[in-house]
Amino acid sequence: MKNKMLKKYALLGIITVLLLSVLVGCNSTSKNATVQKNAQKPIIIQGPMPIEAEKFAQKLKDVKEEKSGNFTFYKGTLDNYPVIVEKTGKGMENTAAATAVVIERYNPIAIINQGTSGGHDPNLNVFDIVLGQRTTNLGSLKTVNKDENQGIDPTIWKPMDLMASEGSAGEDPNAEKPRYFEGNKDLLAAANAVKDKYTKGKIVEGTIGSADVWNNEVDRIKWFHTKYGTSVEEMEGASAAQIAKAYDVAFLGIRVLSNNKVNGGKYNPDTATACQEYVYEVVKKYISMMPSK
After folding, report:
1. What are phi and psi of 100, to 5 degrees?
2. DSSP conformation letters of the chain
3. Mean pLDDT in the chain?
């Protein structure tokens, strides 16, 4: 009888241990699921100036502001997915540094560089939006050889692909062509899928040109349009695209025309808000397209 009781208690002990193991396992699985959810890679929305970033940041939930150097990050969520709006500052150097910092700091799944731009294509008007099927650096140029008093002729300057050689790209004849950074296919698909939600202008795929130069000479703008196939120009996108490619992060430039000198389109600051409203729809669509959603 005593042996039977001991066996019974031993059996109950084993069952208890097994039940506790199951409960611990379930709890561990729940914790792992939470960790996995919290580990979602954020989407980064870049805007150079306050007017090009802060409207989007206001659309996020549970926003926390962080800073690194001159760069500001507005961390929040959109449709329960992590989204960070990054105010990069103007220019190629600021944007390249900001892109490297945001990648190293937050390990994003994708970067959208958006904001205003000047038109190069006479068929585009103020409030039209260009999706960056490709983005290129317009400021990387090589002048031809001219002696003293032979003058200056920017129309015969050559493109210089700084990524073509780890040596002197300036002396490599294969580097005398524009470098184009392709827009991510999934981001382009999301952007095209919500085009009908934008009613303030048309949306086209095109080439975005970038440089630390503000071009106001119509003939020079036309030269870039012909030589590089540019739709618009701005001062940030190509540097962000270059750094994103170095880290293998999905990238897309989205730029609204705030003016267009080649057809007389006057500057309108309201375009910055219009662009952010459209990009908001793009991000929502991109999130819905993710396999894990």
Report:
1. -65, -40
2. -HHHHHHHHHHHHHHHHHHHHHHHHHHHHHHHHHHHHHTPPPEEEEESSGGGTHHHHTTSEEEEEEEETTEEEEEEEETTEEEEEEE--SSHHHHHHHHHHHHHHH--SEEEEEEEEEE--TT--TT-EEEEEEEEESS-EEPPP--TTS---GGG-EE--TTS-SS-GGG-GGG-S--EEEPPHHHHHHHHHTGGG--SS-EEEEEEEE-S-----HHHHHHHHHHH--SEEESSHHHHHHHHHHTT-EEEEEEEEEEBTTTTBPP-TTHHHHHHHHHHHHHHHHHHHSTT-
3. 88
Q: What is the pLDDT of residues 254-292, one digit of tens each?
A: 999 999 999 999 999 999 999 999 999 999 999 999 986
Q: Which residue has the tokens 């894990």?
A: 292
Provide the token pair at 59: 């659309």
Question: Whole-angstrom Cα distance, residue 224 to residue 136?
Answer: 11
> Two tokens at 12?
């109950």
Q: How far is it, in rounded angstroms, from Cα 264 to Cα 221?
A: 13
Is-contact 108 184, C-beta < 8 A? no
pTM of the model: 0.85
Indicate the burial class of 68 (C-beta count within 10 angstroms; 0-12, 13-18, 19 or more): middle
Q: Which of 10-14, 151-155, 222-226, 259-263 has the lowest mean pLDDT?
A: 10-14
Question: Does the CA dihedral 263-226-89-46 come out positive or negative?
Answer: positive
CA separation for the pair 4, 292 (Å, rounded): 53
Does residue 286 contact residue 254 with C-beta atoms inside 8 Å?
A: no
